[in-house]
Amino acid sequence: MLVQVQELMKEYKGEKAVKDLSFQIKKGKCIALLGPNGAGKTTTLNMLAGLLQPTSGTIRFGSDVADVRELIGFLPQQPHLFGWMTAVEFLKFSGELSAMSTQELQQRIDLVLAFVGLEKAKKKRIAGFSGGMKQRLGLAQAILHEPPLLILDEPVSALDPTGRRGVLDLIRKMKNDMTIIFSTHILHDAEQVCDEVLILKDGELRWDGTLTDLRDSLKTSKIKIKAREPINGIFEEFSEKVEIEYVSDYEVVLTVEPNTNPNLFWQKLLEHQHTILYFNANQATLEEAYLEVLTR
């Protein structure tokens, strides 16, 4: 176990931003911290990173070190970069703050700049960097001292699609060498790179588990049907177990239990000699499961 969080709470002026959070971070995992704006994601990560003191609760690291900050690499939502510095100068400055030796820095700076794709820009002023380049430099800073735990706060939220894809690709590669927890409100990002998810709402933990288990937790799924002939009334015999929503005379959305056999409805259409134009009974989406968890 890399990190054990127990009954973590943070209060601001009588308001609880985070309420009795308990979870574990296992070594080698990539965890997405999901939740709407104001859910407490940034507050939680700041406490994990040692930047914010909890009101109560504990954060215990598996390693016995005098200062746990040497175990952590941190990229805030809005990294503070010095525009007048070059990429090399900024990383040298960051490494010195982490008490890295001159020899270590010489070896690591070129390695991390190459890893994030900034080797050709290493002597350019940061002020001239694009948003994606700045975020990649922030990642380089966070992994410079090879921390076991990497904490990323909304690492791609401000980037365009190209920049987003580039940073997510880097996170995917970094999974091989370190444990990662990153916050996002974009489900697709979590689906792309993560093994497990934590879902927060109003400072409370609503889900702790794998993406597969999150999908499987959905209590209902939807079947969308469109026919050439009117379909009103065809499915009424199932109304006790199925929620029926007619989009039009020719389209219907059936809300069913996840283990319901969709062939029942296909067969019913054929019995009425209807021409099926569209029949979608795909597995529940991550978004549907996420939204259901938030409403529980």
UniProtKB/TrEMBL annotation:
Q: What terms describe the molecular function in GO for this protein?
A: ATP binding; ATP hydrolysis activity
Identify the residues that the record assigns to the ABC transporter domain, covering every copy: 3-227
Q: Which UniProt keywords apply?
A: ATP-binding, Nucleotide-binding, Transport
**Sorted alphabetically, which Pfam families does this protein's record hold?**
ABC_tran
* UniProt family annotation: Belongs to the ABC transporter superfamily.
This chain belongs to the protein called Multidrug ABC transporter ATP-binding protein
Q: What lineage is this protein's organism placed in? A: Bacteria, Bacillati, Bacillota, Bacilli, Bacillales
